[in-house]
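Supplementary Methods S3. Input chains for the assembly prediction are listed below.
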Amino acid sequence: MHPVSIKDVARAARVSHSTVSRALRGSPLVNPKTAARIRRIAQKIGYLPSALGRSLKTRRTLTIGVVVNTIADPVMAELVAGIQEVTNRAGYTILLAESHSDPERELRAARALLEHRVDGVLAAASRVGPEYRPLLEPLGVPIVLINNQHPKPYRHAVSIDSQPAGRAVTEHLIGLGHRRIAYIGDRFGYQTDVERFTGYCEALAAHGLEQRPELAVKGDGMIAGGIEAMAALLELRRPPTAVFCYNDLTAIGAMRAIRARGLRVPQDISVAGFDDLFISADTNPPLTTVRQPKAHMGALAAETLLKVLAGQECRMEVRVPGELVIRDSTAPPRAESAQGDD
Amino acid sequence: MHPVSIKDVARAARVSHSTVSRALRGSPLVNPKTAARIRRIAQKIGYLPSALGRSLKTRRTLTIGVVVNTIADPVMAELVAGIQEVTNRAGYTILLAESHSDPERELRAARALLEHRVDGVLAAASRVGPEYRPLLEPLGVPIVLINNQHPKPYRHAVSIDSQPAGRAVTEHLIGLGHRRIAYIGDRFGYQTDVERFTGYCEALAAHGLEQRPELAVKGDGMIAGGIEAMAALLELRRPPTAVFCYNDLTAIGAMRAIRARGLRVPQDISVAGFDDLFISADTNPPLTTVRQPKAHMGALAAETLLKVLAGQECRMEVRVPGELVIRDSTAPPRAESAQGDD
DNA sequence: AGGCGAAGCGCAATCGTGTGCGGCAGCCCG
DNA sequence: CGGGCTGCCGCACACGATTGCGCTTCGCCT
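Predicted structure tokens for the full assembly:
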């Protein structure tokens, strides 16, 4: 019997464990002097109440489950930082789970979280969408989705408004004079990717440009995928003069691939990203991108969840606007490549 | 009574809850046909065993607590990714807590983790050191420290070997011809900072260079602190020709401050960092730094903890070597500044 | 002095799960 | 036909905490 329990405190203080419980929780039903004595003794013998026993009775664990793609993705890390900020203040502890973009793994992770009886779930960049329901429903656990695909069946969601932002980036490139603009997407079918691509297509259409299938390729949302996808684009008979990337990591990979071919950004090819990582102003060259308020979105999602847990049945679906940040990775195309297309 | 419990399954299957428990845990004490029937029914009515009840009885929660500075720090994020990788495979779930470099907050976080009865603790960049003992001891919870200060009283630790690496960086700068070399440290008193600074001093001494106090300033381990500290160095009557920074984020901030003054890296001032972030090859210019195997160290620490939890009483203190990575942010000093010092 | 109300504390049930032990069949064998 | 053995299953308790309810005690008032 290693861990010292409430009964050990009771024995040491010569009271019942009920009184100890009340004393430590500050109940008015116990004499202040007795309470003080009990607290002193509990402190002395190193008593730490067990959340297990408590939660079993109270039916609340004061924990929330957070499932992300991978915490190594700086977008997710900042998101979680924002979540921590508000949940911690409210006394909640976070259970972290990674999906690695694998639906099966995501469901396993969610199941583990629910076995630990988290009070609520925050899922970012989830791929399973509706399949959460049969898991969450019987337990009555609320969920708030972040940048999720198909949030239809759910009541609460926080998302970056990718489509207008994607359109704005593309129009920025068109405004610079580009006509052959590529899109490097993501191969996992995230909703954010679909929306950014849609915005890209919208902009092209609005300016009478054709969306050429060979200019829409797929990365993996990380640097490696950006390198690979960009290398493929450079193999084309007529490579693009500008590239809009699903996210900044992809863009960084694309810039590496471009330099590896002896070309320069933005003189030979313009590159734009999405997210505005903490580092995106310090890349070479500084990256044109869309600022996504990551920590803010995490905090917003967490606040929503806490409200629901507090009993406020607010149905809400927030779409946060992105802000185009123009830096040095985008510029007008070279004269000889500007013509002859379209 | 929202959540469906083991008794509900028992009722539905017309057996006792003991039999359900055994059936679901694959005990040989129950008829295979009965077990199959029970499993089918449990599945159908959406039963998810409660880790609370189980842990109360088994005295294991299959969770481990991870306390980091802040998850927004990419070093910590990669560390946690490495931890997740191995703990997940073993069926453990992670409770995440942040200290924000505040000892009091770190202890509060640790207390919360222990109330949830985590089976073990991984603490990265901890500042409280010995004060963990009175918390952990009574509960018998093992801890593995990562890049920690004063790991003396503990049995298990994984650390980057900062001192030789710091010396190597400084000698690299000296080898390039620098004589006025500054160090931008960290104001929180981390052990890693102390060691890197010690390595820096060693190198100076070994080459007969004086360690000038005005060239040792303090940042905060983040970009903002690097900007501030570098700005102060540039105000000196005779600024340094090279700067060794506590970490890459600090170095990135330093490079921003240098550019803000209209100077260039490395032509006017050389900058070196530490960590080798995923981004450090893509900064402008690419950063000379020390590669720290972050995910590997996280995995190593997690494996150590799992071994201890499995009963293997391995006392170990691993020091992982760092590898100097020379990129473009360091170069020989300009002729006029190389002379005239020391 | 006796009665009555309030304050303070303990009893016991409960949450969901695991498990030692005892019981109850059915079967085999003497 | 009876006894013993084996295979399955249920009873009951334990884990650590919370909480409604009842009991004791004490002080105050008449």
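Residues 15-19, 22, 29-31, 34, 53, 55-59 of chain B lie near DNA strand D (CB under 10 Å from a C1'). Chain B touches chain A through 60 residues (CB under 8 Å).
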